[in-house]
Amino acid sequence: GYILSLTETYGTYSECSSWCSSYGSSWRMPTIDELKEIYNVKSLILAYSEHTLSSECWSSTTATFTYRDLDNKERTGSGHYTCNLSTGSTPLDKSRSSYTKFYARVVRAL
Q1: For 60-85, how does the pLDDT look when each residue is reduced to its tens digit (9 = 90+)?
Q2: Strand partners, 103
Q3: Whole-structure pTM value
Q4: Handedness of CA 31, 14, 108, 43 (dihedral sign)
Q5: What's the confidence (pLDDT) of residue 2?
Q6: How is residue 13 annotated by DSSP?
Q7: How far apart are CA 25 and CA 47, in angstroms?
Q8: CB 104 within 8 A of CB 11
Q9: 13: number of Cβ within 10 Å
């Protein structure tokens, strides 16, 4: 199990990763599977908290993907999965670049 922070931040992956590190070594950005678990139990979280869960959150899970550029050439990129805590979707595409801004929370092991 893990503990989810009540606070969050908004920024690029790098900004959010730095924010997560500022909590100390026992705290970290959640994986995509942990964010899916949070989505699955969000009604319980919201019932016992005055805080809300922002929609699109960064995860620490990375992946590579292929896409076609403007010249229709196939390219390979990499990025971090995000999880939409309103819908449960976990998109990964070139729009999820490290410069896109989303929310982040931190977790730590029990």
Answers
A1: 998 888 888 889 999 888 888 889 88
A2: 10, 57
A3: 0.80
A4: negative
A5: 86
A6: H
A7: 29
A8: yes
A9: 23
